[in-house]
Amino acid sequence: MLNEAYAYPKPSSFSRALRLDIKGVTILLISGTASVDENGKTVHAGDFRAQTWRTYRNITGLLEAEGATWKDVVRTTCYLRDIERDYEAFNEIRTQFFAEQGLDPLPASTGIQAILCRPDLLVEIEAMAIFESDRGSSDDGNGERSAA
């Protein structure tokens, strides 16, 4: 699941996430993630609520690919195209999603209005997770951990 975005049909040079294993601790840096499918195409154009839910599902998949969960997320940065119009809906969805995940404490978070990389994207979220390395490692069969 952690792939290079240049593998998309329309290449872009960034990692969807980067995994750092340092002295038994894993730091997972998840790049800005939006409502896109496995080919990088926008899903739910024009529907802020659906895009927000899809964004959270996409981040969940990235976390799971590395053995992490939302309980390991310590920080999010949330970019909204129109924060005045959409923040109330965003906060409602985020509150519901975090409650469903059983998060306590909640991750630190910043909300920012931004012009996103495509006009049809309405929300993008970055996340940082920290957890013990032995819990989330992927073995390639040769005793090597996968690098994200």
Properties at a glance:
disordered C terminus; 148 residues; 5 strands; 5-stranded mixed sheet; 60s Ribosomal Protein L30, Chain: A; 3 helices
Number of helices: 3
CATH architecture descriptor: 2-Layer Sandwich
Q: Give the CATH H-level superfamily.
A: RutC-like
Give the neighbour order of strands across the main sheet: 1-2-5-3-4
Largest sheet properties: 5 strands, mixed
Q: What portion of the residues fall into strands of 2 or more residues?
A: 25-35%
Overall morphology:
globular
What is the H/E string?
EEHEHEEH
Q: What's the rounded overall pLDDT mean?
A: 88
What is the CA-atom radius of gyration, in angstroms? 15 Å
- Distance between the amino and carboxyl termini: 9 Å
- At the first level of CATH, what is the class? Alpha Beta
Which range best describes the helical content: under 10%, 10-25%, 25-40%, 40-55%, 55-70% or over 70%? 25-40%
Beta strands, count? 5
| Structural class label | alpha+beta
CATH topology heading: 60s Ribosomal Protein L30, Chain: A
Number of domains: 1
Instruction: Give unreliable regions as ranges.
Output: 139-148
Write the layout of secondary structure elements.
Layout lengths: L16 E6 L2 E9 L14 H18 L7 E8 L2 H19 L6 E6 L9 E10 H4 L12
Parallel strand pairs: 3-4
Antiparallel strand pairs: 1-2, 2-5, 3-5
Helix pairs in contact: 1-2
